[in-house]
Amino acid sequence: MELVCKPKLDVVFKTIFTENQDLLKDFVSLALETEIEELFVINNDMLPENYNEKFSRLDILVKTKGGEKINVELQNSNQGNFKERSALYCSKLYTSDLHSGKDYNEIAKTVCINILQFSLFESENYRSTVFPIIKETGEILTNRWKIIFFETTKFPEDIETLKVSKNRLGYWLTFFTVGTEEALVNVDNLNDTQIKKAVSVVRHMNADERMRELARNREDAWLNECLSLAEARREGEQNTMLKVARNMLTQNISIDVIEKVTGLSKNELSSL
Predict the structure, then answer these.
(1) Count of other CB atoms within 10 angstroms of residue 216
(2) Of 6, 94, 121, 209, which is the most exposed, with the fewest CB atoms less than 10 Å away?
(3) Comparing C-alpha atoms, which of 23, 30, 25, 29 is closest to residue 7?
(4) Beta carbons within 8 Å of 257's beta carbon, 6+ residues apart
């Protein structure tokens, strides 16, 4: 059977973790490099029937037994403003329970974990941890909030290397990239108890026609969103080049030079 419910789809990702919180606890513990005793999913909402109308975010917000807030999100594409968006969201989440008269030290520690299916930073590291520090001294301003980015495209270990290294965080990061039945079999063959359960959950979802339809709708919505964004960028670039061309024409620069600089055709330039 074709693998429709792919772990790399956020609708599948959220369903796996909200319905199997032992798996979520395992991944979060590995991501934070500390054992999480207990966690509670706050936004354990039912999935809508389809995603044809609007491409919405499907994050997972949890609280630990100690009150720490942790947000986990999988992103398939960079819409060009992800750094700013992630910083804004983390700051809003951090201050969301600040009420009048409440001591600042009572604000819950906040961690945002972003699993990215694209490259975001110039560094070759697949893990990047962001928190506020003093530039001149390196002193930490506060340890009460941080953002952790995992760029799966930079993860260096393949399946055979993982079998040797037994890097369990790597198991999860590889699982999140699965898009085919063959790739699902490969991670299943890692013979890790938690990963095997996650694979079993995916197979069960893939046999459920409603979940298959949700996954199809989600993937179609994501592709349409990507196409719309790409078209908007092309239009923006086109308008920019037209402005450049008009400016160059006013300076009596030759059509041949303008064509080379802007990439516009002679027909497009003649219309100016």
Answers:
(1) 16
(2) 209
(3) 23
(4) 248
